Predict the structure.
Amino acid sequence: MLRNMSIRKRLMIILIMVYTITMVGAIAGGYYVLDRDAQLEAKEKTRLFATIMSANQTFMARNVRPEIMDLLPDSYLPEASVGIVMMSETAKIIEEDFPDYLFKIASPNPLNKTNRSDAFENSIISGFNNGDFEEWEGTVNKAGRHYYASAVPVVARKSCIWCHDTPEVANPEMVKKYGDDSGYGYEVGDIVGCRFVYVPMAAADKVTMKKLAGFAGGISLLFLFAMLVLDRIIISTLVKPIEGLVEVAEDISRGKMDREFEVKGNDEIKLLADAFNRMKVSLAKAMDILRK
C-alpha cells in the first residue's frame, strides 16, 4: 500500500504509526507510575489511620484500663476497658470528618455482630491463619467503591479471655448487650479476626487520570508540532526539488534542451540533478552525431 503513495504521505503515515505506538507505551507506562504513586500515598494514609488506632488502644491498655479495674472491678465499661470498642468508637469520630474512610475490626465470630467479616475479609483472615502473610495490603472493590486496604491480625490475648471465654464467665451486662451466640470460645494465641483500614482511591484515581490525560495531551501536541514541522521540511527539501526535476525532465523530453536540472543544497537530490545534467549533455552529443 505504501508503494503507491507519495513520499510525503508515506512519511506522514510512518510518523502516525510511531505516534500511536509511542502513545500506547507512554500511557501504559505513565499509568503504571502514577497508579503506583497513588497507591503509595494511600498506603501512608492507611498506616497513619492504623497507627492512631493502635496508639489509642495502647494508651487505654496501659493507663486507663488498670485504673478502671482497680476503682470499679465489677463494672462493665467497654469504652474504657475493651480495646476493640475503644478503637471502633475512635474510628467513628474520625469518620465524621473523613466519611469515606472505613475502619473495621472484622471477625467470623464477633461479639458485636456488626463486626462480622464479609467474604473478602474472611479470605484475608484465613490467609493469616494459614501463615500466608504477616501483614496484608492491597486494593479491593467494596460496595462498588475502590479502596486501598490494609489488614493486621487480631490475636486473642490473655486479657481478652475474660470477655470471650464462655457466656457463663463473661460480664452479665456484656452478655445482655451482645447475646450469647457469638463472640465466645476464644483461646489465647488464636487469630480471631483482623483490623482493616480502607482508604478510598476515588480521589487519587481521578487525579491519576487527569495527570495521564495531561501527559497524553502534551505528547500529542508535541507530535502534532513535529508532524507540521516535518511536513514543511519534506515539502521544501524533498517534494519541491523532485517536482522541479520532473518538470525539467518533461521539458527536455519535448525538445527544450536549454533547460538545466538545478537543485539547491548538496544532498542526494543534488547528486541526482548533476547526473541528469550529465545525461542531458551525453544525450545532446548523441543526437548531434545522429544528425551528422
Remarks:
- The chain has eight helices and four strands.
- The chain has two domains: 2-17+209-291, 43-201.
- The mean pLDDT is 80.
- Residues 2-17+209-291 form one domain.
